[in-house]
Amino acid sequence: MKSFFSRLSRRTWIILGIVVAVVVIIAFATSGGEEETTFQTVAAERGNLVASVGATGSVRARQTATLIWQTTGIVSSINTQIGDEVPADAVLASLDKASLNQSIILAEADLVNAQKTLDELLTSNTSLLEAQQAVDKAEKAYDKAYNWRITLNGKIDIKDYVYDQFGNLKYREYKGYASEETIEQADKDLALAESRLEDARRAYERLLKGPDSEEVAAAQARVAAAQATLDLAHLTAPFAGTITQAFPAIGDQVSAGTVGFRIDNLSSLLVDVQVSEVDINNIIVGQDATLLFDAILNKEYQGKVVQVGQAGETVQGVVSFTVTIELTDADELVKPGMTAAVSVVVDEVKDMLLILNRAVRLVDGNRVVYVLKDGQPVQVKIRLGASSDTMSVIIEGDINEGDLIILNPPSFNGGMFGG
Hints:
Layout: H1 2-6, H2 10-29, E1 41-43, E2 45-61, E3 64-68, E4 73-78, E5 85-86, E6 91-95, H3 102-123, H4 126-151, E7 158-163, E8 169-174, H5 180-208, H6 214-231, E9 234-236, E10 241-246, E11 253-254, E12 259-264, E13 269-276, E14 288-293, E15 296-308, E16 313-315, E17 318-327, E18 339-356, E19 361-363, E20 366-373, E21 376-387, E22 391-397, E23 404-406, E24 411-412, E25 415-416
Antiparallel strand pairs: 1-23, 2-13, 2-18, 3-12, 4-6, 4-11, 5-10, 6-9, 7-8, 10-12, 13-17, 14-15, 14-18, 15-17, 16-17, 18-22, 19-20, 20-21, 21-22, 24-25
Helix pairs in contact: 3-6, 4-5
């Protein structure tokens, strides 16, 4: 026997070893001995649930503005720096007058003249009295032209009282017929006198309106135009806020479009998040929200929904709606541009039968869970209500408090329970 084995080659030994290994594996696989599956279970229980919708977004101020120069010049003064709180219309920086365009320099004189005219219209009665005198003079001229034209319709021995060129009433007597040329000229004189009278009355009526008159409106427009031109030499705060960015330095040469400052109204901070169309109808104005920031560790902030978008936007085939949350307890740590993880509380239920979301499977379009009964998994169809990130409310299904819900159902026939 020993001599027999000694005659076997090394290759033959390798082949025999492989055959034996395969036989052992097959025997073990077909032996029918199966280890008992160990199920992870958790008991169904009643409790409270806070359902929320989560999303991420960036912090922004309710009001924000980037201020840019509108003309060319050299920065001569800077009145603020980053972190300063400034009131509305505060001058933040100015350009050297000598470096400005000539039109801006001349606008200063235009402003003085326009303001003087406006002040006279608003405070002086001279223009109104002059307009009244013009009306009186135009009325006398019209009466004279009118009476003269009427007299030309008469014949011999027509007598009438008329005004002379000084406005005095005179007795006049006409004899004979007037020529066509005389009548035609009288018609022209009368039409001109009537037109001048109407113009004088309109001018007087406009001045009677005071601040509402067209003259005042025109003067105010000239003042505003001159002031706007002068303002090109300055950057002013459009609203009260905090300087969050500042770029200019004294002596800088700037041109139209050069960025000067950024100002934010930090009294109210907002976060805009994109919510899926599946969840948008669960969100309404006034709902509470919690916010977490990557830049602020171990601190949770509170907020409220202040605006819910009513039109969705499609990005890469996904429809989402913009929801705006206002922070109600923001502090100096929260800054515009920070990323926030937002959780909006959309529902809150108490004393309901709850189940872990990880236990739910989808089978043939139905949500199911597997309950351990007599050591065997039993499939039960369910319908869920409000859900959180980890739990859901069971509103329909043959599940009772205390039932053992399987978290790791085994696979059968190559398929996982629930798919």
